[in-house]
Amino acid sequence: MKACFLFPGQGAQYPGMAKDFHETSAAVRELFQLASDASKIDMRKLVFEADEETLKQTRNTQIALALAGSAAALSAREHGVSASGYAGFSVGEWPALAEAGVISRFDMFRLVAERGRLMDEAGTKSGGSTMSAVLFLAPEKIEQAIAEAGLKNVWVANYNSPVQCVISGTEADVAAAEEKLKAAGAKRVVRLKVSGAFHSPIMAPASEAFAELVAGVAFADPKTAVYSNVSGRRIESGAQARQFASAQIISPVRWIVEETSIAADGYDAIVETGPGTVLAGLWKASGAKIPCFAGGTLSDIAAISL
Q1: Is 90 a catalytic residue?
Q2: Global confidence as pTM
Q3: Is 199 labeled as catalytic in the residue annotation?
Q4: Mean pLDDT, the chain, as a whole number?
Q5: Which tens digit of pLDDT belongs to each residue from 141-179?
Q6: How high is the pLDDT of residue 142?
Q7: Which of 75, 90, 246, 286 is catalytic?
Q8: Helices in the chain by DSSP H: which ranges?
Q9: Which of these is catalytic: 75, 195, 199, 200?
Q10: Do residues 116 and 231 both lie within one domain?
Q11: Which domain holds residue 29?
Q12: Which of 17, 45, 64, 278 is deepest in the core (most CB within 10 A)?
């Protein structure tokens, strides 16, 4: 049975996630310690004891999700569910890279902690930037409405599904775009509670600083299939993975293309290894016939039938 693991991104987190994995697996407890050592953060305290507000701060969310996703993948393997392909949404791409052997887990956790910090700082210093989800309007219609309105500081940041995208930009241009998109036929436009315009050119300071960090880290060629948010296709080499690592911060998440690439590679099943079922929902919306299972808890993993 050929499976692909998907790792969720920001928004999927919740206090106490992965606690069942931590309580039942010595290897997961070692993983928590590794993440704590790499990030210089007490990850048990952050993930299990922090309140929702603390956990949703970008500098905390990213490292917590990378750890929760890694713990879910490890637990899945311990229970006989393994993968031959990996992908992740935004920060979720980092545990995917580690699982595919592109970088070490220690380096992954260290870099994700820095990525979260840099993106948090870029959002704070942007002078006011945000994101909004646009529902039930095709991606090309969203792009057209923004272009016709002449808005220069708002972009499509996440191509989630044929009926869901996220826009990202300055407060003023996002607000203007929201009205234009409603007029163009969007059934709902929902402002997101985020600290900045992620996956847009506004994150350039974070991307540039992160490029300097990854320059000194070993990136190996993938040992198994791993897919990129930047291209929507398989990552071919360690050099390409390093290049995409910083580019991803300012580039849109091309999840629609990525799902198509995954489906074309002939997997028998998809497992969302991490909290929530957001990616399972997007997979279903893609129209792919391959079944997608939740894998964010021990009970989820026990229910997987491969």
Answers
A1: yes
A2: 0.97
A3: yes
A4: 96
A5: 999 999 999 999 999 999 999 999 999 999 999 999 999
A6: 98
A7: 90
A8: 19-24, 26-39, 43-49, 52-55, 58-78, 93-99, 105-125, 139-148, 171-184, 204-214, 238-250, 255-264, 278-286, 298-303
A9: 199
A10: yes
A11: 3-124+201-303
A12: 64
